[in-house]
Hints:
With 228 residues, the chain is α+β, with helices and mostly antiparallel strands. The chain has one domain: BirA Bifunctional Protein, domain 2 (2-Layer Sandwich), CATH 3.30.930. It contains eight helices and six strands, in the order H-H-H-E-E-E-E-H-H-E-H-E-H-H. The chain has helices spanning 9-20, 24-29, 31-49, 112-123, 127-140, 167-170, 191-202, 204-213, and strands spanning 57-58, 77-81, 91-97, 100-107, 145-146, 175-182. Helix 1 crosses helix 3 and helix 5 packs antiparallel against helix 8 (204-213). The N and C termini lie far apart (54 Å).
Amino acid sequence: MSEFTGFPATAFTFYQGLENDNSKSYWEAHRGVWETDVQEPMQSLVTDLETEFPPLRIFRPQRDVRFSKDRTPYKTWAGLTSEPRAVGGVGFYLRLEASGLRVACGAMVMAADQIERFRVAIDHRTFGPEFVELTEKLAADSLPVTCGKMPPLKRPPSGYPSDHPREKFLRWKGAVIIRDFGRAGWMSSAEALDRVREVWSGAAPLTDWLVTHVGPSEVPARAPRVRR
Length: 228
C-alpha cells in the first residue's frame, strides 16, 4: 500500500511565502508547515519510489552560503535525487516549488570524462544512431531529451567534422529529460506519485543508454575552493 498521498496545497504556499521572505524569522514561524506538509510527504514519496528506483536522498533545506554572494539562508524549493553529486551522475531528480513540480532524469551536467565517453558513443556507427532513434521516440511520447543545464558548444568539438551526421549531439554537455508541471490539484493526491513514475519509467531508454555508454564520472568530485 502506498504511503504517499500527495503534497498539501500549503506546501506550495509555504514556498511562495519563502520566496517573498527568505529569512530565519519566516522559517521559524512556519517550521511546522515545512515539517508536516513538505518533509513528511517527501519522505513518504521516497519510500514508495525506492521500491522501483535507486536509493534517493532528500536535499537539506538550508543553502550553503559560504562561497556565495547570495546570502539568503534557505532553498526556495524541496527536492530529492538518486545522485550524491551535482556534476557527473546519471540518475533521477524531483523538485517541488511554489510554481509546481519538476521531474527529471538522465545526466543534467556531465563531468569531463563523461563528455568524452558521450562523444565517442555519439560518433559510433551503431551507438550514435541508437541515441538519435531513442530521442525521436521519446519526443513522440512527450519526453524530449535536452542538453541539460550547460549550454551546448557553438561548434563541434575538436576532432569531429562540422558535417558530422550527429553534430548537434556532439556539442552537448548533458542529456536529460525534464518535465515541468505547473501547480495543479493532482499534486495534492497520490496521482503525483503516478506522474513521477510515468516520467522516470518512460525515460528508461535514455537512462539505459547513458548507463551503458557513459556511466557515472570516475573523477572525484572537486571540493569548493576556499577564498583566502
